[in-house]
Amino acid sequence: MTLNGEKKKLVDATSNLVHQQFYKEGQDIILGRTPDVKVKISKSGQIIKKFEDLFNDNLHYFIEGNYKKFLQPFKKIKGVNEETIHQIHEDLENKLEHFKDENSETGNIITYTLVLSALISRIRDIHFNDSIEEVRNRISKKSRKKSSVLSEVEVQEALDNLFMRNNKNISILYNISYLCALAESFNYKKVVHICNIQKSKFINRIVRMIVSSS
């Protein structure tokens, strides 16, 4: 395969992996991880394109096998620092070992998928965990007003139950938290404001569900 042909395959893979269970292309629609929930957020497509460009503009490093250098530009993304990059790279090394001698098109796409999935998952988890921490804080404040205060264990069990059932509020909060981080990274202040309003709405729904079921 020519270098241009290989790059085209990787650009297509970037789009597929970034959009997967997250964004409906061309409509500024953020999807939940389940298809029954979605939110329209203006300019989300522009932000996601800028995120994709961070991958695509540095594909030469990936093709050369310089994964550490490929990951460096992502320090631009909120929550990602040198330590994060080091951890992701370290986690990948063992997995990449299985494909280091693989020159086939399939092998390269598998390796690229591993790199992107690790990076995207880390970014998503950092910001989703922040949102879940806010859920905990609001539950604590709300339950103190009731006669019985929910323990941390009870809150965690309630959250685990929602995760297991792929609750739609959890599902969309996961992706709005992710978009909010990307919007802040690329200085889309109005989108950050809209995302924060949406996050708060879904956080409150989760809080109400947990507190009312206690």
Keywords:
71% helix, 214 residues, elongated, mainly alpha, 3-stranded antiparallel beta sheet, single chain, 9 helices
Count of structural domains: 1
Which spans have pLDDT < 50 for at least 5 consecutive residues?
Answer: none
How far the N terminus sits from the C terminus, by CA atoms, comes to: 60 Å
Spatial strand order of the main sheet:
1-2-3
Q: What is the number of strand segments? A: 3
* SS content category: mainly alpha
Determine Rg (CA atoms, Å).
19 Å
Summarize model confidence as the mean pLDDT: 88
Tell me the β content: under 5%
How would you spell out the order of helices and strands? HEEEHHHHHHHH
Helix count equals 9
Helix content: over 70%
Largest sheet: 3 strands, antiparallel
How would you explain this protein's 3D organization?
The structure is a single chain. The protein has helices at 3-19, 44-56, 59-64, 67-71, 82-97, 105-144, 152-164, 168-185, 189-212; strands at residues 23-24, 29-31, 38-40. It is mainly alpha-helical. The protein has one domain (3-212). A hairpin with a 4-residue loop joins strand 1 (23-24) and strand 2 (29-31). Helix 6 (105-144) packs across helix 8 (168-185). The N and C termini lie far apart (60 Å). The mean pLDDT is 88.
